[in-house]
Structure formats: structure tokens, C-alpha cells
Write a structure and sequence with these properties.
By secondary structure, the chain is an alpha+beta fold. It is built from three helices and two strands; from the N terminus they run αββαα. Strands 1-2 form a two-stranded antiparallel sheet. A hairpin with a 5-residue loop joins β1 and β2. The longest helix is centred in the first third of the chain and has 17 residues. It is globular. The N and C termini lie far apart (45 Å). The mean pLDDT is 84.
């Protein structure tokens, strides 16, 4: 049986920095300082920024959300809406290594 290979594009540091700049621009546009994490397809952190005024408690959340999205091959979504608690996210953060 012949070996099958696929030519998958990889996110480079330069590409991650472009994504990061676009995310920062959007955060400025909506006037919400954010913690922004960019990971590769293996969920390894490539770039991170904590904007002035962003919540310190959101650093780990941003990284874990990016990693989860990469592993699941799904886009990220809001962690919660209004007063609703995302139980799966809460359990995942409780179990995350420090």
C-alpha cells in the first residue's frame, strides 16, 4: 500500500503575528481590551498578547480556548453569555495544570 502524504499549510510566526494584529485591531474597535492567544495546529502557543486593561484572570482562559479550538478543529466561541456559566470550560480550567 503506498504511503499517503498531505501538504498541510502551517501557521508561521509571521502569520501568527498578522492574526494577532488583526485581533488587537478588532478589540480596539469594539473598545474591549483582551488577552489574545494564537496557537498552531498542534495547540502549541505561537503568539500571545495581554492588552493594557485586559483582565489578568483571562490569560489562562485565552490560551486554553485557543488550544481547545486547535485540537477540536473548531472556532472559539464566547466562554459564557450574560450570567450563564460554561460548566465544561469551568471544569477544564479547574483541571488545568498550573
Amino acid at each position: 500500500m503506498p504511503a499517503v502524504t498531505r501538504n498541510n499549510p502551517k501557521l508561521t510566526l509571521e502569520g501568527a503575528q498578522l492574526v494577532l494584529a488583526a485581533a488587537q485591531a478588532r478589540a480596539v474597535e469594539i473598545k474591549i481590551p483582551m488577552d489574545i492567544a494564537i496557537v498552531d495546529d498542534g495547540a502549541h502557543l505561537l503568539a500571545f498578547v495581554r492588552m493594557d486593561g485586559a483582565k489578568l484572570s483571562s490569560v489562562e482562559i485565552a490560551i486554553r480556548k485557543a488550544q481547545g479550538a486547535a485540537i477540536r478543529r473548531l472556532p472559539t466561541a464566547p466562554a459564557r453569555t450574560g450570567e450563564e456559566v460554561n460548566e465544561v470550560l469551568s471544569m477544564g480550567l479547574a483541571l488545568a495544570p498550573e
